[in-house]
Amino acid sequence: MNNEEKQLKWDTTWLLFARMMADRHSKCASKSVACVIVKDEKPISIGINGTPSQHVNCNEIYLKQDGILYTSRPDHPIVEESVERNGTLFYRCENQEEHHEWSKQHEIHAEINALGKLAADSTSARHATAYVTHSPCHACSLALIASKIDRVVYSTGYEYGDGLNLMRQSGIEVIHLPLANEYFLEKI
Fold first, then answer.
1. Structure confidence at residue 188 as a pLDDT band (50, 70, 90)
2. 62-80: average pLDDT
3. What residue numbers bound the domain in which 76 lies?
4. Binding site for Zn(2+): residue ranges?
5. Residues 6+ apart with CB under 8 A from 38
6. Confidence of residue 181 (pLDDT cuts 50, 70, 90)
7. Annotated catalytic sites, by residue?
8. CB 10 within 8 A of CB 42
9. Environment class of residue 111 by beta-carbon count within 10 Å: exposed (0-12), middle (13-18) or buried (19+)?
10. Most exposed among 13, 39, 131, 170, judged by the fewest C-beta atoms under 10 Å?
11. Residue 177 · residue 9 · CB < 8 Å
12. Does residue 162 sit in the same domain as residue 114?
């Protein structure tokens, strides 16, 4: 196996790990995102999108089902279409962008959570690789640039992920590596 094949195998492995962390631990109703920062072939930080500890989680007030956003917020105008989940009634949001606005005010992105954990431990991300389930937004891209990350590998494009060119212009190697379904069928 040559170096490129070996790197691709590791990149795929870490992205699958990030995907699993996002799917199992994100509390966001709309997008489950995780960032795994790897340095010298070992993970040094994991970040998941969500609210700070002790704050209300997104999935406690929002529900996304079949591409439609619902909310349980008591101040939300009640409409007839509703869905019940675990004993809570969620009503269809008239404004499907409502969650995005709420998220900007209350949630921390996975990349920021991962970098924040490194900063709290006085650990450097210099020359590391960030494996992210979704392409970083502009603010997360700036944080990754400031952290001196060498590479960013992501699997899914994010509609607000406008920081890719910014990272490339700053010398970060940016790799789009979509995860095909056959990866999920392999034996672990």
1. very low
2. 77
3. 58-104
4. 109, 137, 140
5. 14, 44, 128, 129, 131
6. low
7. 111
8. no
9. buried
10. 13
11. no
12. yes
Structural domain count of the chain:
2
Whole-angstrom Cα distance, residue 143 to residue 89? 38
CB contact at 8 A, 144 and 167: yes
* Residue indicated by tokens 């406008």: 162
Question: Looking at the structure, do residues 69 and 25 belong to the same domain, yes or no?
Answer: no
Query: Residue range 152-164: average pLDDT?
Result: 85
Predicted confidence at residue 76, as pLDDT, reads 58
The side-by-side arrangement of strands in the sheet containing 173-176 is 42-48, 34-39, 129-134, 151-156, 173-176
Query: According to the model, what pLDDT value does residue 37 have?
Result: 98
| Same structural domain, 132 and 87 | no
Predicted pLDDT at 97: 80
Q: Sign (positive/negative) of CA torsion 105, 109, 115, 116?
A: positive
Q: Is residue 185's pLDDT more than 60?
A: no
Residue pair 63/29 in contact by the 8 Å Cβ criterion: yes
